[in-house]
């Protein structure tokens, strides 16, 4: 995996986590929504944490495992975001932007995953 791609997913997953934290603050303070937003906070910040762990992996198998977890957390984050939008806690325009970032992160992780598996 190229160094440039590693930096892209690190940067994007970190920026996404910051957006999730801000959204969580909004949902809890303005919307008084605590359950779904907590789930989103956990999965949304976990993506970057698992990417960071993947970069420090002790083996290719460990790297792939951590990246797979990051991909699953991204899928889960997409689920919570859609649920929050459809239950009208997040406005459509706010959803579109953050969900696009989530899907973009998933695509990058998938590409890294596929490239790594094919180089095995």
Descriptive terms for the model:
120 residues; 4 helices
Describe what is shown at a glance.
The protein contains 4 helices and no strands. With 120 residues, the chain is mainly α. It is elongated.
Oligomer: single chain
Order of helices and strands: HHHH
The level of helicity is: over 70%
Which percent range describes the beta-strand content? under 5%
Q: How many individual β-strands?
A: 0
**pLDDT < 50 stretches:** none
Shape: elongated
Note the main sheet.
Answer: none
Structural class, from helix and strand content?
Answer: mainly alpha
* C-alpha termini separation: 11 Å
Rg, rounded, reads: 15 Å
Residue-averaged pLDDT = 94
Q: How many DSSP helices?
A: 4
List the SSEs and their pairings.
Elements: H1 3-29, H2 35-55, H3 60-86, H4 92-118
Helix pairs in contact: 1-2, 1-4, 2-3, 3-4
Would you mind describing this structure in some detail?
The protein is mainly alpha-helical and 120 residues long. The chain has four helices and no strands. The protein has helices at residues 3-29, 35-55, 60-86, 92-118. The N and C termini lie close together (11 Å).
């Amino acid at each position: 995996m190229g160094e440039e791609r590693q930096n892209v997913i690190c940067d994007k997953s970190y920026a996404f986590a910051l957006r999730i934290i801000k959204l969580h603050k909004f949902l809890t303070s303005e919307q008084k929504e605590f359950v779904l937003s907590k789930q989103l906070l956990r999965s949304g910040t976990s993506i970057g944490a698992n990417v960071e762990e993947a970069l420090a992996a002790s083996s290719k198998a460990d790297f792939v495992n951590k990246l797979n977890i990051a991909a699953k957390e991204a899928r889960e984050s997409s689920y919570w975001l859609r649920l929050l939008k459809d239950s009208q806690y997040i406005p459509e325009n706010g959803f579109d932007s953050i969900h696009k970032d989530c899907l973009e992160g998933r695509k990058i992780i998938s590409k890294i995953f596929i490239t790594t598996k094919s180089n095995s």
